[in-house]
């Protein structure tokens, strides 16, 4: 990499630089680095919401849970497949056998063969190899019920993912509006600082000319400090709000650039389409949870039936022990040499499982009633949220309609108070109050339209669909 200067300068006398290809490549790579670029392309609220859904980790968690539930369906379907168990073993052990009963357990190893007349410590090789294939030809609907339960679990996970997406999208859109509101407050606060400083210069001139007492200059200086503090707080609010948006988008807040679009304008007074709150993702998630519990109840109802297993086996065994009590050669029994096969059906019935199955079904019944009640509560809460959001939206529109009159009156009051003060007819307290009123009115005016958009967002969120809001915000 090198830089060369040509022998001739440019038209303004400055030297002309010629960059080599490696330098240009390095410059391009450096500029393409995320940390090097100053800002990114301004994002609209629709793009911010889409990126938040794509990048926020909680959405990825929900989607992975859906995939896990889908894999659970495949797991449940494997119960239809036959089972095949392969076995091979070799051992060296004594061959003493005893006649009598041994209850089923997992400690003492089983032994077969005739009982020897005396107890000996001789040992022989033993070996075995075999395969057992088992298949349940019919199950009274148990496997189907288990597959349906797994399918309901996937549906519940999908509905939960939809709810997570709605929550993330609503939070990202609200953070976007918060940034715009904070930026508008900064503009109004800056204007308030400029006016306070202008008035302070007038008051200071009057005080230096001995036309006003020095206390008025001190009072106005305090007003300037208050306005500057308000500006500092507004700028701090912008940084905090930008950090919240950057959290959803996974980008540095310093690189964040937002495109307001029509969000700084008064939205048209259009009615939202009537939404069926039963289709809200939160209600749908609870409904899916109820369906999953009912599917588990159906599976339990089909569990108290005989289990039929069609079985086939083939195996071979080898042993160095003989029926007459003698043993074979050194290697006798190390490999299987006696073959057998069998085909049959076994039937098992869990006779005393009925009490436990009844208790499990009772547990699921209580869970079902709890989920049904929770679904009713969520639906009722959503209805209340929708009514509150509609009332908030109506009030925000009325406030926005009234704000021009408030702002005009505040400006007139500020101009009159300043004129009266310059004419010696008023005092600094009147000017300070008028300045504060005007600054607050400017802030309220700038936020009034954003409050309408925020209320519209709340309505869409309560109805479970942000599409109407995003469509209006994208015009």
Could you please describe the fold and organization of this structure?
- By secondary structure, the chain is of the alpha+beta class.
- The strands form two sheets. The chain has a four-stranded antiparallel beta sheet with strand order 3-4-5-6, with no helix packed on it. A two-stranded antiparallel ribbon has the order 1-2.
- Helices cover 59% and strands 13% of the residues.
- The longest helix has 69 residues, at 354-422.
Please describe the structure with a list of short key phrases separated by commas or semicolons.
Outer membrane efflux proteins (OEP); four-stranded antiparallel β-sheet; disordered N terminus; 6 strands; two-stranded antiparallel sheet; 475 residues; elongated
What's the total helix number?
A: 9
How much beta, percentage-wise? 5-15%
Can you identify the CATH class of the domain at 45-74 and 144-293 and 359-473?
A: Mainly Alpha
- How much helical structure, as a percent, in the residues? 55-70%
**CATH fold assignment of the domain at 45-74 and 144-293 and 359-473:** Outer membrane efflux proteins (OEP)
List low-pLDDT spans.
Answer: 1-39
Q: Could you give the distance between the termini? A: 49 Å
Shape: elongated
Tell me the number of strands: 6
What string gives the helices and strands in order?
Answer: EEHHHEEHHHEEHHH
The major β-sheet equals: 4 strands, antiparallel
What is the CATH superfamily label of the domain at 45-74 and 144-293 and 359-473? Outer membrane efflux proteins (OEP)
Radius of gyration: 41 Å
Strands of the widest sheet, in order across it, are 3-4-5-6
Give the overall pLDDT as a whole number. Answer: 81
Structural class: alpha+beta
Architecture (CATH level 2) name of the domain at 45-74 and 144-293 and 359-473: Up-down Bundle
């Amino acid at each position: 990499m090198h830089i060369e200067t040509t022998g001739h300068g440019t038209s303004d006398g400055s030297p002309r630089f010629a960059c080599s290809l490696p330098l240009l490549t390095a410059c391009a790579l450096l500029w393409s680095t995320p940390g090097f670029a100053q800002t990114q392309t301004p994002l609209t609220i629709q793009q911010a919401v889409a990126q938040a859904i794509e990048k926020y980790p909680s959405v990825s968690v929900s989607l992975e849970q859906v995939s896990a539930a889908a894999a659970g369906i495949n797991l449940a379907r494997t119960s239809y497949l036959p089972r095949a168990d392969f076995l091979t073993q070799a051992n060296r052990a004594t061959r003493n056998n005893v006649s009598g009963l041994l209850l089923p357990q997992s400690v003492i190893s089983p032994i077969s063969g005739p009982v020897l007349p005396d107890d000996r410590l001789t040992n022989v090789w033993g070996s075995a190899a075999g395969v057992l294939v088992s298949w349940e030809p019919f199950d009274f609907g148990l496997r189907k019920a288990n597959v349906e339960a797994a399918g309901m679990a996937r549906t519940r996970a999908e509905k939960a993912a939809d709810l997570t997406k709605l929550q993330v999208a609503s939070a990202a859109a609200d953070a976007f509006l918060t940034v715009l509101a904070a930026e508008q407050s900064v503009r109004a606060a800056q204007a308030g600082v400029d006016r306070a400083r202008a008035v302070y210069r007038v008051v200071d001139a009057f005080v230096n000319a001995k036309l006003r007492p020095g206390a008025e200059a001190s009072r106005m200086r305090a007003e300037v400090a208050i306005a500057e503090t308000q500006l500092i707080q507004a700028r701090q609010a912008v940084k905090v709000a930008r950090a919240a948006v950057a959290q959803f988008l996974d980008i540095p807040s310093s690189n964040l650039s937002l495109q307001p679009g029509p969000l700084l304008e008064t939205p048209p007074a259009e009615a939202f389409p009537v939404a069926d709150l039963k289709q809200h993702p939160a209600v749908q998630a609870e409904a899916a949870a109820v369906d999953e519990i009912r599917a588990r109840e159906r599976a339990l109802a089909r569990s108290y039936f005989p289990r039929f297993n069609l079985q086939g086996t083939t195996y071979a065994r080898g042993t160095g022990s003989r029926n007459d009590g003698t043993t074979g050669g050194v290697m006798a029994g190390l490999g299987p040499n006696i073959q057998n096969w069998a085909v049959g059906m076994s039937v098992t019935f869990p006779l005393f499982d009925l009490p436990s199955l009844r208790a499990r079904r009772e547990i699921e019944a209580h869970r079902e009633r709890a989920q049904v009640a929770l679904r009713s509560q969520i639906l009722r809460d959503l209805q209340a949220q929708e009514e509150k959001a509609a009332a908030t939206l109506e009030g925000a529109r009325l406030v926005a309609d009234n704000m021009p009159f408030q702002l005009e009156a505040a400006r007139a009051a500020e101009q009159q108070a300043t004129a009266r003060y310059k004419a010696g007819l008023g005092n600094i307290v009147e000017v300070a109050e008028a300045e504060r009123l005007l600054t607050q009115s400017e802030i309220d005016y700038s936020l009034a339209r954003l409050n309408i958009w925020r209320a519209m967002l709340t309505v869409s969120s309560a109805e479970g669909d942000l599409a109407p809001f995003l469509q209006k915000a994208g015009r």
